[in-house]
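User: Need the bound-state model for adenosine-5'-triphosphate:
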Amino acid sequence: MKKLIELITRRGGETPLSESAAPQEMPEGGLPTEPASGAAKETAPKLPPEPPLFFMLSHLDDDGPVRLDGVKLGVCEVMGLEIDEPKLGAFAGALNALDFPAQLLIRQHPPRLERMREKLQEAQPGNLPPQTKAAAESLGRLLTDLETRDGILDRRFYAVCEFARIDDLRGLLSRAGLSVHALQGRQLRMFFVSAALGGSPAEFDEDAPVEVAIGRRDMRIGGTLVRSLHLGKWPRSLAPGFLQGLMAAGAPMDLSVHVGPIPAEQAARTLEWQKVRFESAQSLSLKRGRTMSPEAEIALEDITRLRDEVQRGRERLFHASLSVTLHAKDEASLKEMTQRAKAHFGATLGKLDNLAFRQREGLLSTLPLALNAVAEWRSLDTSSIARLFPFSPPDLDTRSGTLYGIDMRACSPVVYDPWDGTHLNANIAVLARSGSGKSFATKLGVLRGLTRGITAYVIDPEGEYADMARAAGGRVLSPGVPGEGMNPFVIERGDSEEMLQRIGSLRRLIEVMVGESLGAERRASLDHALAGYYARPRERTGFRDFYSYLQEDEAGDPGLARLLRPFATGSLRHLLSDEGDDLLGNEALVTVFDLRLLEPELRPAAAMVCTETVWAAAAQDPKPRLLVVDEVWSIMQHPEGAAFMVSMAKRARKHRLGLQFITQDVQDLLSEDSSRTITGHSGRALLQNAAFKLLLQQDAAAISTVGDAFDLPQDLQRWLLSCPRGDGLLLSKGNRFPVRIEATPEETAVIEWTPGRH
Ligand SMILES: Nc1ncnc2c1ncn2[C@@H]1O[C@H](COP(=O)(O)OP(=O)(O)OP(=O)(O)O)[C@@H](O)[C@H]1O
Ligand SMILES: [Mg+2]
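Assistant: Bound-state model below.
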């Protein structure tokens, strides 16, 4: 029993050595002090060598592992891509240019979410009300549950080769459109230890001893049972993404494909020789009056075609070898996984070998050592290897931020932080039919955000969010009620660019308020009046102040003041005020603008007033904030409102505001039918300015519009019609992630809190 980490870092690392771990004092094939139990029933466990020998690793340099034979390796992580024909072609192109041996390694293991749990814990504001705190803690438990939930796996792709060629390998893969980054230092160390011990890369307890025992057909490494298998008989043909079906079976595994290019001349010679062999067999059969078997004919055709392709340089031949190591908690699940893996290959006439008495060779082949210890090869052409590789499904697990859902295809948690600067913006559009869970998903996002300190504002035309905000200790404002008016007229005068933008926004806001199109001339004089107003060196800004400026402005258009009178002195005077509520002064974690009390035709203007006020607050004190605009369609139906929202979406990023637009009128938002309204165009512009789009269940009437707008294949369109509530597609960075939005009971209690019920 040895401390693995100490051993594998003994030369490169800083960890001091315990004496017994020193390599020179280690007896060859040294014995573990405690033989492991249960690993091998049929025969007595064969006692393995000490860990460094066992794992064939000399030590870890900062930039790569060094094998026991002294060969230094480079490792890079390759981001998975969705498989499609152009990408396959690009990947095949990269392989064609590969002129040194390389190992492609895919590792999928239960996710390690403890770092994220810790970060969420650290970010949690101290003053959460008990119910919200309980919800935050329940999220921690949900994450723990996901770590052990069947089928939830974190899948990572790596490429390994000799250190001297790692830059070439990176270059080839990045030219093929993959994103590649080299593993170094702590990352490399976590990666290697996790590869040796099983599990996703994470900090391991460096003092924990590791026990290794080898059986005939399995091994025990630490607490897990592992079994290595080797693809002895390859399927005759490989469909694109051939390995994907295996990976999707949901078993924790390390799968390794070793490839070594065969020089073109040698490849052509081999193929020519095989062709001649088949042809002579054919003529022999003919002489004897027999016809050739159909299989032999197909094989001859294949070889002839391949020889031509190789001679033209379009294909190359490789030595290839595939091994897989399965990890399980107990024998029953190991057996079940083995059967599933074998069945996957069996279905295409391939066969996985058990590697009896060669388990360690199998394991070594799936470690990032660029070493095919099984030493069995088969010749494959470029396109077969390209098709084999399961680039996909991509996942959206950036390991920072919070949980947004569960990716049902990649079987991984959907974890990201819209404000981490890696996204185009933090905007998200939610489009779905009524009752599909739009508000639920949004409230969950607000709740999970506020438990990590992200301030949220919600513009709520139907009064759906007020209860939740109260439960979470937030506040509810009702613009239009005396004393709760807003003051969007506050402008930071220093920044002239910002000032121009804001004047434009205010002008659009006023146009929607007065409810009629002003015409070019009046619009220009309103712009002029606003510019004149802000040009005056006065501290006080607010609607009523602006109104009196209009009244006093003799050179200006007297019609303007008349139009605005209802908002200054009439029935609508409580919507806008001069002081307004100082949003920043006592900024709550969540603020809901409840517009239910307003006349429906006033709500769009009120929503814009609130949006503009939040924008003003964000401009004064930029930090991650979420602004939810529910029923965005009501604003978009006014051309000026649409222009206002689109411009807001474009600028939001500047002050770290994430806009979340929600609508069920997908048809109207996206319609290109010019006879309807002009908003179809702005609707699309709005969507283009959202880095994330969430499509939940759709209406049959709208699905083809949605399918067109987001370029969704037929099967996904059908799925969106019938998926259960809370399921949907998240679109981001050119990928589509089928997500399930799952809340804990404690979170649901906050989301669905109603004063009467609790
Ligand atoms: N992910 C989910 N998990 C559990 N329950 C959900 C989920 N999504 C929605 N629900 C349930 O469905 C109900 C309706 O959802 P919600 O109010 O969010 O729909 P909506 O799309 O906002 O509808 P509308 O268009 O009418 O506003 C919720 O009250 C909630 O109980
Ligand atoms: Mg709703």
